[in-house]
């Protein structure tokens, strides 16, 4: 496409300011990063056939220096004016030989390709059977025989493919990994929390040196207390043990001790010594961390008062909130990778143990429980976590890179690379979406080459060609656009 120098002047100035990096000067033109620039690049003045206003000034020695207004070199020589007809051209050399001149002349006879018609350079649905210019003075572009076939394919020149960065990749059978990511928090396992409490009135005599946050072991002494009800039941049990005849009359003293929560060690001590201790020692029922301590020396505790709350933190829960749309892909037993803020270098592995039955109406999420081993105790309640649930299938499916799918919202299209610059748009049915690949259920098969880069540009060109074919087929109204789907 012929581009007026006014649209690229800043680019040329930037190139010259870069210190000649990536270009070389010649007698008939110069090249920047593989692009051929046709136009004056020597010290010769403008030809007599050049027309139009002066659009910029160039160095008289052909050096890559330009100016928007008249200026002189360091030696005092005037910069040479460049007229509008001496426009630069950024097309490849093959295109330069085949394009019509600015005056509307036909291409040289050396070109074997036949020009079917000329299309608008800005992509507008307008064609012409003869060379012409648009309202901005840009030449209409020729459409050659073979580039406008009716077999559903699109032909693109190798030069244009290189400039746009077209790249293809082969569709293949792959096992898709479809992770679902969600945030959540660490919570204690409700089944591993216990409390130390009395079932009768009691008076605290002495509390062990245990505070909130301390680790305790199962059977460790926590508090020594006196309970009148336990003492009375213990005395009755001693009487029953001493006099079997009274046991049949009274009876149930041992059961009353158990109902009052008397420790098993206390009952064994009464049976062995036939005496009732005045104070009873309460111990920890499990290994864990003291979450709460309410016992104080000398206080009176009512039935049910919590003296200590202990939690086993060797196993904790990660409660993650899953979006409602992702719920169908979640199932108990799926592997979960959990990262905890503050421990980015560690990855905790677990499995989905439960999907809660409620949906939060404000956030439209459902809570999922993941059990995590915590042997060193670094996972603490209310820590923030990021969970990644693996929901992919083990069966391989036909998949292409995600960038290969052009999704308009109502249909999905991929471009099949037919080779030699020919491309075929094809409507496909997509399935699951993985991290980098998308499942294709219908439309292509393993082994097909699909475009994964610059496919949007090719798709736009394909739609334009389809519209132009519709225009050219209407001989009566060549200038009226006509829609024609792919």
UniProtKB/TrEMBL annotation:
Keyword Transmembrane helix: no
Keyword field contains Cell cycle: no
Keywords assigned: Ion transport, Signal, Transport
GO terms classed as biological process: copper ion export; plasma membrane copper ion transport
InterPro entries, A to Z: Beta-barrel_RND_2, BSH_CusB, CzcB_C, MFP_Cation_Efflux, RND_pump_MFP
Domain CusB-like beta-barrel: 315-391
Domain CzcB-like C-terminal circularly permuted SH3-like intervals: 399-458
Pfam family, one: CzcB_C
Annotated ranges, domain CusB-like barrel-sandwich hybrid: 193-311
GO molecular function, one term: transmembrane transporter activity
One Gene Ontology cellular component: membrane
Listed PANTHER family: CATION EFFLUX SYSTEM PROTEIN CUSB
NCBIfam families reported in the protein's UniProt record: RND_mfp
Family: Belongs to the membrane fusion protein (MFP) (TC 8.A.1) family.
Protein name (Swiss-Prot/TrEMBL): Efflux transporter periplasmic adaptor subunit
Native species: Phyllobacterium zundukense
Lineage of the species this protein comes from: Bacteria, Pseudomonadati, Pseudomonadota, Alphaproteobacteria, Hyphomicrobiales
């Amino acid at each position: 496409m012929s581009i007026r120098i006014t649209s690229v002047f800043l680019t040329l100035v930037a190139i010259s300011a870069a210190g000649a990096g990536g270009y070389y000067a010649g007698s008939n033109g110069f090249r920047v990063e593989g692009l051929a620039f046709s136009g004056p690049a020597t010290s010769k003045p403008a030809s007599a056939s050049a027309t139009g206003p002066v659009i910029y000034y160039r160095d008289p020695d052909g050096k890559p220096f330009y100016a928007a207004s008249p200026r002189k070199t360091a030696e005092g020589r005037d910069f040479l004016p460049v007229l509008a007809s001496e426009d630069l051209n950024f097309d490849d050399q093959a295109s330069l030989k085949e394009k019509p001149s600015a005056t509307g002349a036909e291409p040289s006879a050396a070109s074997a390709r036949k020009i079917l018609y000329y299309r608008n350079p800005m992509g507008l649905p307008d064609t012409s059977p003869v060379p012409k210019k648009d309202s901005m003075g840009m030449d209409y572009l020729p459409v050659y025989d073979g580039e406008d076939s009716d077999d559903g394919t699109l032909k693109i020149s190798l030069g244009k493919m290189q400039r746009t960065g077209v790249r293809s990749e082969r569709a293949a059978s792959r096992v898709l990994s479809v992770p679902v990511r969600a945030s959540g928090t660490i919570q204690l396992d409700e089944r591993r929390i216990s409390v130390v409490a009395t079932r009768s009135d009691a008076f605290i005599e002495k509390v062990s040196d245990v505070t909130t946050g301390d680790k305790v072991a199962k059977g460790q002494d926590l508090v020594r207390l006196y309970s009148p009800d336990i003492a009375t039941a213990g005395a009755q049990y001693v009487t029953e043990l001493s006099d079997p005849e009274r046991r049949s009359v009274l009876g149930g003293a041992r059961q009353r001790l158990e109902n009052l929560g008397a420790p098993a060690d206390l009952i064994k001590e009464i049976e062995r010594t036939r005496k009732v201790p005045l104070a009873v020692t309460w111990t920890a029922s499990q290994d864990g961390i003291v979450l709460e301590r309410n016992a104080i020396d000398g206080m009176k505790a009512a039935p049910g008062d919590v003296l200590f709350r202990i939690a086993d933190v060797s196993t904790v829960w990660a409660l993650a909130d899953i979006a409602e749309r992702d719920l169908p892909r979640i199932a108990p037993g799926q592997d979960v990778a959990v990262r905890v803020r503050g421990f980015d270098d560690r990855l905790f592995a677990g499995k989905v143990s439960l999907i809660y039955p409620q949906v939060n109406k404000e956030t439209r999420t459902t809570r999922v429980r993941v059990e995590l081993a915590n042997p060193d105790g670094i996972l603490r309640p209310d820590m923030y976590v990021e969970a990644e649930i693996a929901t992919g299938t083990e069966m391989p499916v036909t998949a292409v890179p995600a960038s290969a799918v052009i999704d308009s919202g109502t249909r999905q299209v991929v471009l099949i690379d037919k080779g030699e610059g020919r491309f075929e748009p094809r409507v496909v049915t997509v399935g699951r979406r993985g991290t980098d690949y998308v499942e294709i259920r219908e439309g292509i098969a393993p082994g097909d080459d699909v475009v994964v880069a610059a496919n949007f540009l090719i798709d736009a060109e394909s739609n334009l060609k389809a519209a132009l074919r519709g225009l050219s087929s209407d001989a009566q109204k060549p200038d009226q656009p006509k829609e024609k789907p792919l």
